[in-house]
Amino acid sequence: MMNSDPQILIYDEKSLLSFLDKHEIDYEYYAHPAVYTNEQADLYTNHLNGFSAKNLFLSNHKGNRFFLLITRSDMKTDLKTLGEQLNESKLRFGSEEKMQKLLGITPGSVTPLAVINDTSRQVQTIFLREAWEADRIFCHPLVNTATLILKHQGIEKFLTVTNHEPKII
């Protein structure tokens, strides 16, 4: 699927899975009804072995820097402390419009795999150390009607191939 700029390919679920296959990034695929919260996702994935992640799309107060935070699903996020760690005075949740424009996803589908659509590398990927060090992590495949499980090596390879060096906090 293409967006309004014919030179920028926007990946969807099918093309993302093809990308993973092409780059020999192994994953397990689990289809389920649409989910919009971690609690809803847990209904379909809590029997699986992996790290249940919460993914937040954030921006600075000027709206000119963007972050994708991957943390534990049951963890409350202190945006003030996170902002201090990132040398940003104020962080807020990024707008749906910016999320769609930069990552090609909608609320409920936030995932570290969305950086595949960030070809201009405007979004900094930030992992809580616990999420980064997990052996297996749950990720949406750009839609909220399925969950992928990737091994740590897979997520690391994916970020390398898409040229998105993660920041670990």
If you had to describe this structure to a student in words, what would you say it looks like?
The protein has 169 residues and is an alpha/beta fold. Helix content is 28%, strand content 23%. The chain contains 6 helices and 8 strands. The protein has helices at residues 13-22, 38-45, 79-85, 96-103, 129-132, 152-161; strands spanning 28-31, 53-60, 66-72, 91-93, 123-127, 136-139, 146-151, 167-168. It has a 5-stranded mixed β-sheet with strand order 4-2-3-5-8. A 3-stranded antiparallel β-sheet has the order 1-7-6. Mean pLDDT is 92; it is low at 1-7.
Task: Characterize this entry briefly.
With 169 residues, the protein is of the alpha/beta class. 28% of the residues lie in helices and 23% in strands.
Helical content stands at 25-40%
**Quick check: average pLDDT?**
92
Distance between the termini: 34 Å
Query: How many beta strands in the DSSP annotation?
Result: 8
What low-confidence regions span 5 or more consecutive residues with pLDDT below 50? 1-7
Largest beta sheet: strand ordering: 4-2-3-5-8
- Fraction of residues in β-strands: 15-25%
Radius of gyration: 15 Å
Q: What shape does the CA trace take? A: globular
Spell out the helices and strands N to C.
Answer: HEHEEHEHEHEEHE
